[in-house]
Amino acid sequence: MTFDDSTQDQRDPTLSPLDEQAVDLLVEHGFDLERATAAAPTLRERLAAAHAVFHATESYPVAAPDAALIDATLARIDREEDAQASRMRFGATVGDSGTGDLPSRGLPSLGRGRWADFVAVACVAILVVSIGLPILDQMEHRSAVAGCANNMRSIGAGLAQYHGDFNSRPIAAGFAPDLAGLASWAGYDNSKHLDVLHQKGYCDRACLSCANNDDDSGYASQVPNERLNRLWMMNSHLPLLADRNPLVLRTAFGRPIGALAENSLDHGGTGQNILFADLTVGFEGSPLLSVRFEGAAAEMPENIWIPADRSGIEVGLQSPRDWSALDVFLLQ
User: Fold this and answer.
1) 222 DSSP assignment
2) What are the start-end ranges of the H helices in 88-214?
3) How far apart are CA 22 and CA 43, in angstroms?
């Protein structure tokens, strides 16, 4: 049927574009004829015709509903509500258990279908925890290692610039303890020498320690000695800097030392970042390295946490006065 008064094939009951526009306006304005007419006055007649057709359904004769149909519908609604309430209770009722004549008060029960949903959600939660948390921990670990490595690169650049300006390694003013008078390496604050880089503007203060360093003791760096001055000239692949020495930390807190090849505590014992004299930075999974000292014909095994004694043997954290200063020993 069409509201258009133009000639049209009755076998094609489609609306003309103007009538379609009129119907759309009525729908948009909630079948309010006055508002629709105000929006498009030129379509007044078409809007009125469409409005009359839509409201003709109000006077369409409809037989009164059967009372039995109403009762059946209400009864079905009641049954559905009872079934839903039963599914929302947990457990069984006292009457159902057969243990007493008390009124049947329903203990909560999820119902068979609800329990399946609950188990599915629980399985998903367990899966997220078991897989998601390790992945998150691994991402945090990688981020911490990368941030620590960037700190060391900044320190390496500062050391190179400092050595170029002063032709010397950074030495803290007034810090020249008598090693013969020290009973333990735990009493030697080697980080003061790296503080000079910050004090003279060669690197930021935040670069002088790992983000996982909870006591702000700084990185472990080579203990200054005259024999290793060339090591600071950035011309060899020898360790200059690393994360905190775990053996000295244990000694400082009075804890027993276990394995001498223990990794730094800064990265959960998985390894340590190391800055080498050629300004490269690597993450090593062990403090045991193979290094080649100047003039040596072959590489030698080296534990960066252990000082060599005067006989040249790395056997433990002997007193500082017994240190030979002929090996790589990193200490914070």
Assistant:
1) E
2) 94-97, 111-127, 133-166, 191-199
3) 7
Which two structure tokens, joined as six digits, stand for 298? 């072959």
Q: Record the tokens describing residue 212, joined without a space.
A: 């996982």
- Name the percent of the chain in helix, strand, coil, to the closest 5: 50, 10, 45
Q: At what angle do helices 111-127 and 67-87 cross, to 10 degrees?
A: 40
In the numeric block, which tokens belong to residue 15?
Answer: 């609306």
Q: Distance (Å, rounded) from C-alpha 123 to C-alpha 108? A: 22
Domain boundary assignment for the chain:
17-51, 134-331
| φ and ψ of 11, to 5 deg | -80, -5
Q: Minimal CA–CA distance to 184: which of 119, 248, 269?
A: 248
Q: Would you say the pTM of this structure is higher than 0.70?
A: no
Contacts of 229 (CB under 8 A, 6+ apart): 168, 169
Percent of the chain with pLDDT over 70: 77
Could you give the 3-state DSSP secondary structure of residue 302?
A: strand
Q: What is the pLDDT of residue 303?
A: 95
- CA pair distance 290, 244, nearest whole angstrom: 20
